[in-house]
Structure formats: structure tokens, C-alpha cells
Amino acid sequence: MITRAPATVAAASDAPFVWGVSTSSYQIEGAAAEDGKGPSIWDTYCRQPGRITDNDTGDVACDHYHRYAEDVALMKALGVGAYRFSVAWPRVQPKGRGAVNEAGLAFYDRLIDALLEARIEPWLCLYHWDLPQALGDLGGWANRDCAFWFADYAALIARRYGDRVKRFATFNESSVFTLFGFVMGGQAPGIADRTMFHRAIHHVNLAHGGAIDVLRSLVKDASLGIVHNIQPSRAATPAAEDVKAAALFDAYWNGAFADPQLLGHYPALIADLMEPWIAAGDIARICRPIDWFGLNHYSPLYMRAFDDNPIGVGWGAAPDSVPRTSFGWPIEPDAFRDTLLHVSKRYGLPVYVLENGRSNPDVVDEKGAVNDPDRIEFLKSYIGAMNQARAAGADVRGYFVWSLLDNFEWSSGFSQRFGIVYVDYATGQRIPKASYHWYADLIRATAPRPHSAAS
Question: Which amino acid positions bind substrate, per UniProt (predicted)?
């Protein structure tokens, strides 16, 4: 076990609170085969019949690739101070290694410059699930070499954008894309193999550490982090096998990445399972100093023992008394408060909430408006819970709504709408929802007021 003191960028009392919005490349960009972009594992997965609701794909999505200026204008009018987005690795490096695609790099130049002109800070995430298919053909994250290909990709991004971008995240929700992609089903690459799953966990961790070192060495004044989806794992019933399953799932979902990256060891429940894949020096390579902890949170998880997947854990039901979103996710803001307190204490880093929100069956009314009172109530309650955590000592420095736009919601296709801006997928039209205007009012109400000349 090794322990490293985290790098820090500012005392909590000196750091202004950041309001923002988040998106990801595959979910909004479209232009899946334009301007030299290579295919990703999600392009491939979406073409397998029955994988995605209604057989939807991200081929067009929100057409952000062509309409980014409109989307930046929406953010500017909203008043956010920051925008978390991801770069599509196969757009800038079609085969994941070797030759780069200048047209793809130039797209992110245009986006970053537009954000800066609008006085919105770009927060760049290197990886939000769209691995180049060429690397998937070589085993993807189950191949140890992928960690080193990722470091080379990080260097490409750092050299290209590090003069303008200072906030970088290595990965978004590593637990999600490894668990769903390699054992539980529902996401690319659609494999069910426990050995490949454990290898993928370790190799993603290696990739994170290598990328942190690359970014630190190449970007002056870089502020570096990673985005974890932390959600309490609760037993769906009091049965002993369900309690055991929930504990195991907690180790995989909440600990398999954050603990080795920040504490220098894998969780005890899975440490022996990970041991075969750990080479000398690996843990030191993984556990690198970072500046902040990115937290995604939607709800607690209710788990049960389940024989039909390689780790023996499956989804259970929340208590009947717990309200749910249209996605069926429990609404429990107290769990958000407790998670913020836990993360802040356990890892000792400033926390930025980089995804929080809910899905709704939003529609345009006869006046051309989109009213989403349930989303507003959700945001009120969760931001209230965040403020309770801050009052109790959690070092939370920012909150980003998921998501700016309705978008391609992975295996659910376009059936779930998370945006505070409605997207008509047939035309691409954007319509700010009532929640967009509510969030704009909140940002204005909490903005620091300039000192008067007399003060």
C-alpha cells in the first residue's frame, strides 16, 4: 500500500463556486463518419440489432458537431462558468494510435475558442466511453497496451489544447463502462467475461495514472482530476446473500478505481481477484497526485445476488415508498448529501459535482414551450442536499447539471431526456426548458456581486 498527498490548487475559502453543465462526445456530436473520424466501439455496438432501444444510434445525435456555436450561445445565455465535454478519441486519432486527424482536432479548436470567447471555462474529459474500434479489435481495455496508447493520446490532446485548456479529467465513470461493457451487459463492447473485466479495471487505472503524468508534464498550470460515479450500494433485501452481493458491488462500483488511484490499494473484497494483473510498480504508476475529485451521482443502488452474470450481482428494487424518475431511478437527495460527505472525507480532495440530473418524458406544448416541473423539483432538492453537505464540512466547489441537451442515452437511445434544453431530433431545433430558465435564475442569484466604489 502507498499513500500520496493530493496536489491542491486553492484553499476552499479562496475558490469561487462553479456552476456548469456537462455533455459527452458520442451522446451529442453526431458526424459519426465525417471529416476523417474513425468508428468507435459504440458505433459498432449500435449496429448490432436489439442492443439499443428502437435501434437508435449516435450517427447524428444532437448534431453538435455542426451546431456547436448555437450550443455555446445557449450556455452563455444560461450564465454557466464552465462546460465539461469530452473529446472523441477516434475523431482525433481514427485508429487510436499513429496518424492523427487534423479535421477532428480542428473541431475542438473551434469549440474551445468559442467557449473562451463566451467566458466559459472548458473542462476537457479525455474519455467518455467511445474507444476507437481499431483498439477494440486488439482487445480494448482488456489489453494492457491500451494504457500506453491512452497516454500517447493524452499527450496529443495536451500539446494541442493545453495552451487554452487547464482543467482536464482522464476518465468519466470507469466503473460504469467496465461493469456494463464486460460483465453486466447493456453497453459496448458487450462482453461477459470476468477475467477480461478484471484486466480492464487494472488497465484503465494504469491509463489514468499515465495520463496524469503526461498532462502534468505538458500543460502549464494544469488542474487535473477524474470523474467517478459514486452511489451507495444497498442490499435490496435483508437476506444474507443480498447483503454480501451489495458489498461486493460497492467494491467494484465505488472502490475499484477511486481507491487505487487515490489511496494506493484495491478494495479488500476484490484485492485478491485483481492481484494476477498487477505488475511490479503498477500501483505507484496508478496512484498519482491529482487536484480534484469529479463526482457523478444520481441515486443509491439496490442490489441482490444474481447468478446470471460473471460476478453474481444484479439489480434489485428500491423500497416502494421511494419516488422514482421516468428512468426508474430512485430519488433520494439525502443519499447525495451523504455521498458528498463520504467522498470529501475519504479522499481529502476538493469535489466538483460533474453530473447530476434526471430524465423526464418532456414534450413541447401548444405554445412551443417545454415545462418540466419535476426536473426543477429534483434539482432544487439535490442542490439543497449539496448545500447541507457543504455546511457540514464537505469541500464541494462546483455543480454541473447533466445535461445541457437531450441526447443519445446509451442503450436507451433517445427514449430518455435528461437535458435542460429540449432537442427535436428530426430537425435539430433547441428549445430551452423551464428548468433551463430556473437554473439561469439560480446562477444569477448566487453570482458574486461586484464591490461598489464606496466599499
Answer: 27, 128, 172, 298, 402, 409-410
Name which of 401, 354, 353 is nearest 379 in CA terms.
Answer: 401
* Selected residue with higher pLDDT from 127 and 12: 127
Query: For the segment 190-239, what is each residue's pLDDT rounded down to a tens digit?
Result: 999 999 999 999 999 999 999 999 999 999 999 999 999 999 999 999 99
What average pLDDT does the chain have? 95
- Cβ-count burial of 361 within 10 angstroms (0-12 exposed, 13-18 middle, 19+ buried)? exposed
- Assess whether 121 carries a catalytic annotation: no
Q: Which residue has the cell 453537505?
A: 389
State the cell numbers at 9. 490548487
Give 91-103 as a 3 state SS string.
Answer: HHCCCCCCCCCHH
pTM of the predicted model as reported, rounded to 2 decimal places: 0.96
> Could you report the per-residue pLDDT of 253-271, keeping only the tens digit for each?
999 999 999 999 999 999 9
Distance (Å, whole) CA 180 – CA 411: 10
Check the annotation: does 410 bind a ligand. yes
Q: How far is CA 166 from CA 21, 126, 233, in A?
A: 17, 13, 34
Distance CA 404, CA 28 (A): 10
What is the C-alpha separation between 430 and 453, in angstroms, rounded? 41
Q: Is residue 27 part of an annotated ligand binding site? A: yes
| Coil, strand or helix at 337 | helix
Catalytic residue of the set 70, 117, 173, 377: 173
- Residue 202 grid coordinates: 487494472
Distance CA 223, CA 398 (A): 14
Q: Which residue among the candidates 102, 121, 241, 355 is catalytic per the annotation?
A: 355
Q: Report the relative pairing of strands 421-423 and 430-432 from DSSP bridges.
A: antiparallel
> Rounded CA gap, 420 and 316, in Å?
29
123 is in an annotated binding site: no
Residue 332 confidence (pLDDT) above 70: yes
Asked if CATH classification 2.30.30.40 holds for the domain at 12-446, the reply, yes or no, is: no
Active site residue 355: yes
19 is in an annotated binding site: no
